[in-house]
Design brief:
This protein has about 375 residues and is mainly α. The chain has one domain. Helix content is about 70%, strand content about 0%. The chain has a two-stranded antiparallel sheet with strand order 1-2. The longest helix has about 30 residues. Pfam families: Glycos_transf_4, MraY_sig1.
């Protein structure tokens, strides 16, 4: 637990004090956010606000992970943590960083061209596909020191579902789909001051709890597994908890500056990075289907876009005034702060339901 707390504290401090530095640097570089002319008129006042702020909490998380490992070396549990860094950490942090790189390229092109046209939709999806595919192969085909892989060949809900064996190739496809879906879901949620940041904090916090709970009831802990039939067959749960806690804390530090009125935006660098990390956490904790509930706000907002596109292409009519869903409520007259807080409440409810299902499964299998 000490290592998780150390990682979270370091990430928070770096992000809280590093973000204003980034604001000054990006402002000096004229890296302001271009604003589309279509959409709520209130957004025009945000033109020129520095973007690419996600770089700060990505760097903060990576540094905090290293700090957490320094703390980990002083603990007796070290014999369970195994190699440093673990394969799980390489996959999770790799997804965070390289999905962030794809988003950074998109942000950079927007700033350079002084308009909202960054990477094309195909280019962005191709980048996500390459990153997701590369780390899927690592997660499925490269075993760690104990022979386990980061991801499994089964579709999972709260644990692997024994009768849903899709094989390694199928698991690679599922892995890529989860990463692309989550990264685009967070990206679509980003658009109002603090909305995606706050929702991500809740989801990452949930995965930190799940990771630590799995660590305390882990099949890799021979002392626990010897006397308990039901344990969690996952790889490096303490690493999962540490990375999720560090990312959540880094986002809290960033939110101090990103909340309304935002002084900096996370940009696609932050949104795609966070989505990639959340997707990786879902696969690594064997909670792939549960992530649909835990990340329910991202799913709802993504579906609003899908519904809008299908409706317009098939009937010529729009279901919402504008998609993603948050902009529909803006055009309906809701204030930005009201939308953000209410959507955070929805995200919190989804996280609570997801954690409730996770814990109820533990009670059922250990009752």
């Amino acid at each position: 637990m000490r290592a998780v707390i150390v990682a979270a504290a370091v990430a928070f401090i770096i992000s809280l004090f590093g973000t204003p530095v980034a604001i000054r640097v990006f402002t000096a570089l004229k890296a302001g956010q271009p604003i589309r002319t279509i959409g709520p008129a209130s957004h025009q006042g945000k033109k020129g606000t520095p973007t690419m702020g996600g770089v700060v909490f990505i760097i903060a998380t990576v540094i905090a992970y290293a700090a957490g490992h320094v703390a980990l070396t002083t603990l007796p549990e070290r014999q369970i943590a195994q190699e440093s860094p673990t394969m799980t950490a390489l996959v999770l942090l790799g997804l965070f960083v390289f999905c962030g790189v794809v988003g950074f390229l998109d942000d950079f092109l927007k700033v350079r061209r002084r308009n909202s046209d960054g990477l094309s939709a195909k280019g962005k999806l191709l980048g996500q596909l390459i990153v997701g595919g590369a780390f899927a192969i690592v997660a499925l085909y490269v075993p760690s020191t104990n022979g386990e892989t980061v991801a499994s060949e089964y579709i999972s809900f709260i644990r692997d579902i024994s009768w849903l064996d899709v094989g390694k190739v199928g698991s690679v496809l599922v892995f890529v789909f989860v990463i692309m879906s989550m990264s685009n879901g967070v990206n679509l949620t980003d658009g109002l001051d603090g909305l995606a940041t706050g929702a991500s904090i809740l989801v990452l916090g949930a995965y930190s709890l799940i990771g630590f709970w799995q660590y305390r009831h882990w099949c890799g802990d021979s002392d626990y597994a010897r006397v308990n039939e039901y344990c969690y067959q996952v790889r490096d749960p303490l690493e999962i908890a540490m990375i999720a806690a560090a990312a959540a804390a880094a986002c809290v530090g960033f939110l101090w500056w990103n909340t309304s009125p935002a002084r900096i935006f996370m940009g696609d660098a932050g949104a795609l990075g966070l989505g990639g990390l959340i997707g990786g956490l879902a696969v690594a904790t064997r909670t792939t289907l549960l992530s649909v509930i835990i990340g329910g706000l991202f799913v709802i907002i993504t579906m609003s876009v899908v519904i809008q596109i299908i409706s317009f292409k098939t009937t010529g009519k729009r279901v919402f005034r504008m998609s993603p869903l948050q902009h529909h409520f803006e055009l309906a007259g809701w204030s930005e702060v009201n939308i953000v807080v209410r959507f955070w409440i929805v995200a919190g409810i989804c996280v609570a339901i997801g954690l409730g299902l996770f814990y109820s499964d533990f009670l059922a299998t250990n009752g």
